[in-house]
Write a structure and sequence with these properties.
Distance between the termini of chain B: 102 Å
Oligomer: heterodimer
CATH architecture of the largest domain in chain B: 3-Layer(aba) Sandwich
Order of helices and strands of chain B: HEEEHEHEHEEH
CATH superfamily of one domain in chain A: Cytochrome C biogenesis protein
CATH architecture of one domain in chain A: Orthogonal Bundle
Structural class of chain B: alpha/beta
Helix content of chain A: 55-70%
Largest interface: A-B, 26 and 22 residues
Strand content of chain A: under 5%
Order of helices and strands of chain A: HHHHHH
Radius of gyration of chain A: 41 Å
């Protein structure tokens, strides 16, 4: 019984030590390609238009990815790296325009246009009506005579006129 | 007896004030798009344009007059040769030696200043490039591409010759073919 307790305690101690040491070991590991691409994906090549940095094949882009790798290894976080790129290469390297100044139009105008369009569409659809069947109103002359006498009388009147 | 005619239903359109706001908004957007397109169509700055003042921060070891940054306005009275380059730019390598040679030729006169603006580059690679070609004239990064946007450059290399009064006089798009080509432009400006 005592031996079992000692054994259990020993195992727990080892597990605890592993849990405490593991994060320290992880910090010492260099950034992986996935870590680099996770940041590079949010940046555009400053030279090649509309090419995300993680897929850009040029030498310059490879240099920038190496730069991201070294900054990650230094312990810089994603926000700091992105800010560095903005400071050096301008806001156009970001995959999303910064939410400031006239850039707000990019975020506001499209949903606003869609909303206005939807309102106009709904209003237009509501004003559409099914064609109504209007009952035809027959003229008095076209009416079939209800009474034979009345019909003969009308004919006589017509002849005289 | 006639069937009663039905009155047409009252149409409810978009209120007038909403229409006005929508049209004003659309007009504003069109104006913005027009301004942006107009800017893009302008191309690079042209000879005859007065160059607005700017500050180029300099790499350590490439200072000018002990300053770690250089303002264009501080160079008034001198001819300025501003060269945009990058370490990843192959054509830039074709003219690097000629530019350095021209700088060595004119530096003792004190009348001409060569400036190198490193365009969207990384400092380690930029330094390797500068050392590889033995470049000694003031060089620094174009932070945030502010200076290149001022000149509306189309690519690298591009070189701008600014006269003693701050007016742009000549633009070289692409690498120089010879030292004489650089000297021809500078001598013209010095003779004025």
């Amino acid at each position: 019984m005592k031996t079992q307790l000692h054994f259990t305690f020993f195992v727990l101690l080892i597990v605890l030590a592993g849990v405490l040491v593991a994060p320290v070991l992880a910090q010492g590991q260099p950034p992986t390609d996935d870590d680099v691409n996770a940041v590079a994906r949010q940046l555009y090549c400053p030279v090649c238009e509309n090419t995300p940095l993680d897929v850009c094949p040029t030498q310059a882009c490879a240099q920038w990815r190496d730069l991201i790798r070294s900054m990650l290894a230094e312990g810089k976080n994603e926000a700091e790296i992105k800010q560095y790129f903005v400071d050096n290469y301008g806001a156009r390297v970001l995959n999303e325009p910064p939410r400031e100044g006239l850039n707000w139009l990019v975020y506001i105008v499209p949903p606003l246009v869609i909303l206005v369009g939807a309102v106009i569409l709904v209003r237009t659809l509501r004003t559409w009506k099914k064609p109504q069947v209007v009952p035809q109103v027959e003229s008095p002359r076209a009416e079939a005579p209800v009474d034979d006498y009345v019909a003969r009388l009308e004919e006589e009147v017509r002849k005289k006129n | 007896m006639t069937a009663a005619t039905e009155e047409p239903p009252i149409r409810r359109g978009v209120p007038l004030w909403v229409q006005i706001i929508i049209w004003i908004g659309l007009l504003g957007l069109l104006v913005l798009v027009g301004i942006t397109l107009n800017k893009r169509e302008q191309g690079t700055v042209q000879p005859g344009d007065v160059i607005p003042d700017f500050t180029l921060p300099l790499f350590s070891g490439y200072e000018y007059a002990g300053q770690s940054g250089i303002k264009l306005s501080d160079l008034s009275g001198r001819v300025v040769v501003l060269n945009f380059w990058a370490s990843w730019c192959k054509p830039c390598e074709q003219e690097a030696a000629e530019l350095q040679e021209a700088w060595k030729y004119y530096e003792p006169t004190g009348q001409v200043v060569f400036l190198g603006a490193d365009y969207v580059d990384t400092e380690p690679e930029a330094r390797v490039y500068l050392q590889k070609y033995g470049i000694t004239f003031p060089n620094g990064p174009d932070m945030g591409t502010r200076i290149s946007q001022l000149f509306r450059i189309q690519g690298v290399p591009e070189t701008y010759f600014i006269d003693k009064t701050g007016v742009l006089r000549y633009v070289q798009v692409g690498p120089f073919s010879s030292l004489e080509q650089i000297q021809a432009q500078i001598d013209l400006l010095l003779s004025e």
